[in-house]
Amino acid sequence: MEKKVVLKTENVGKYFYDPVKFKVLDEISFDAKEGEFLTLVGKSGCGKSTLLYVLSTMDTDYEGRLFIADEKLSGSKPDHLAKVRNEKIGFVFQFHYLLPEFTCLKNIMIPALKLGKYSREEIEHRAYQKLEMLDLKELALKPASKLSGGQQQRVAIARALINDPLIIMGDEPTGNLDSKNTNIVFDIFKELTRSQNQTIIAVTHDTDFAKASDRTIELMDGKIIDLDKKWD
Fold first, then answer.
1. What is the pTM of this model?
2. Which of 53, 56, 4, 59 is nearest to 32 (CA)?
3. Which of 3, 48, 69, 94 has the fewest CB atoms within 10 Å around its CB?
4. Domain range list for the chain
5. In sequence order, what are the residues at sequence separation of 6 or more whose Cβ sits closer than 8 angstroms to the Cβ of residue 173?
6. Where are the beta strands (DSSP E) in the chain?
7. Is 177 within 8 Å of 185 (Cβ atoms)?
């Protein structure tokens, strides 16, 4: 059965103006399907992180059209985009951005408390479920500052999952990890696409990480040069 498209761009373009006018994204058109693990690659400065921020709705200064779950989001008001981000997108960055004095459990609960869809008790239950899924349940009440780098990034993934987002977006999600923890994070992402039908879109410089994903889109000078890169 054909999997449904959860994100789509049509002719997305973007300019930077400092120090001179420069087109950083040029006619970007592609889609991502439900349960797809998609990586974005290219040399530094090719526009991949800029594209991710457009896809995430955090950057609204662009040409073209962006759709998430068949809804056109280009031109939407900031408060609506904030709601879409909290409901439909989970973020995993190179740095975990956990609140160090908060426990793992509280860090994971924050986006769900902000969304306000469930009671505090239900949110805590859901947070424990995510911790268990990522083999971190015994660390639930430990301050984030007391965890290793790999554990902190797994907590950040649990936080990204708390609202059951349609898409997880990662900006160099393994860029700050050693090879062992990189493999752990990759295996988590792969399992999420299989067992939860989760869509993942990740920017990476890690060739091995990209090679093992379902599909790799390659950018150069702001353009897509390959929608399904085949690795040698």
1. 0.89
2. 4
3. 3
4. 34-58+77-226
5. 92, 93, 94, 153, 157, 185, 189, 202, 204
6. 5-16, 22-33, 37-41, 63-68, 71-72, 89-93, 167-171, 199-203, 215-220, 223-226
7. yes
Cβ atoms of 123 and 112 closer than 8 Å:
yes
- What pLDDT, on the 0 to 100 scale, is given for residue 177? 81
CATH number of 34-58+77-226: 3.40.50.300
Which tens digit of pLDDT belongs to each residue from 197-218? Answer: 889 999 998 888 899 899 999 9
Sheet holding 89-93, edge to edge: 89-93, 167-171, 199-203, 37-41, 215-220, 223-226
Cα–Cα dist 71/6, whole Å = 10
